[in-house]
Amino acid sequence: MSRFTITINALLLSLLAALHPGRAEESPTYEQLLKIDVHSHVFEDFPALNDLFRRINMRTVNICVPAGDGHLEQMHRAANELSRKYPELYPCIATFDLRRHDRPDYAEKVIAWLDGQFALGAVGVKIWKEVGMEIKDRDGKFVLPDDPRFDPIYAHLAKVGKPLHAHLAEPIDAWLPLDPASPYFSYYSKRPEWHFHGKAGVPSHADLIAARDNIMKKHPTLVLIGAHLASLGHDLDAIADRLERFPNFHIEVAARARNLVRHPSDKVRALFLKYPDRIMYGLDSMWKPFMREKPPTDLERRGYLQMLELRYREDFDYYAGQGEMTYTERQVEALHLPRSVLEKFYNGNARRIYKLDAAAKHTAQ
Ligand SMILES: [Zn+2]
Fold this sequence. Notes:
Layout: H1 3-19, E1 35-42, H2 47-56, E2 58-63, H3 72-85, E3 92-95, H4 106-119, E4 124-127, H5 130-133, H6 151-160, E5 164-166, H7 185-190, H8 205-218, E6 224-226, H9 227-230, H10 236-245, E7 249-252, H11 257-260, H12 265-274, E8 279-280, E9 285-287, H13 298-320, E10 324-327, E11 330-333, H14 339-353, H15 356-364
Parallel strand pairs: 1-2, 1-9, 2-3, 3-4, 4-5, 5-6, 6-7, 7-8
Antiparallel strand pairs: 10-11
Helix pairs in contact: 4-6
């Protein structure tokens, strides 16, 4: 197509938009909309998954985490390989070993490791809830995420323009008695180590949220993404308060639509409309063959793909659809976000915040 034809087409399109106001805001179809899931953990070259992503117009930001289970290097090798082979489909986020924080050269070593990952194309850095909820100093005290020993690392990320993707704290439910009505009942029933209710000497939810706020106070140019609705899914006002106070704070919704559907839909919609540049889509699926004793079977692979396809579609119906719907067995009113907001939520913000377009070119070279 010549440049002339493109210009004429653009003119015709703007003429059409002027004749039919509102047309530009018509909802995109599921396949039309480029969707970037900013929160996956996929560590296998998995052709059927690539095919699914291409068919439904999905990409993912592939996150290395956790760092403390002994697979740090193996996990990064798999993520680097995927982002090198399919730079658009699997841009990756690196992580670092949080357990050696008491070594004198700790920050220096971590920075060198992360710089190596950036050279391989990593678009950001993940920090996980183990800081604040699991890792302790020699004196038995929990290490908090705003510990000064991490400051040189945060300052470095701010300097080189890499965002910190922060899953810090947990939903408030982790500090409340186990409740079958909670969306996290099953998780905390099976994972009591993360259920802090009734435990002595542990940080409170407020302590951990304050520690994260403090990172942003100390490093105002650091771009921070609060994973999982920033662990504030129970309180949309608390999220808005932080989006107001910290201009470099963003959130993603991975694994927390189950919180959103418990709020009135008009209140959730208002949050998206007020902060369209600050909220990103994510699901938080996990495919870690290296953690298994035996390689996954084809049946298991198919099961994973089916789950993904269902969940991606159900999420889209909630954010983009209209009217009453069933979301994980709850009746809710779909958000029916305007097209311009959906575009930012599903791809524009991720492309800008993680600089994905530049990263895809860099990794492909
Ligand atoms: Zn995750």
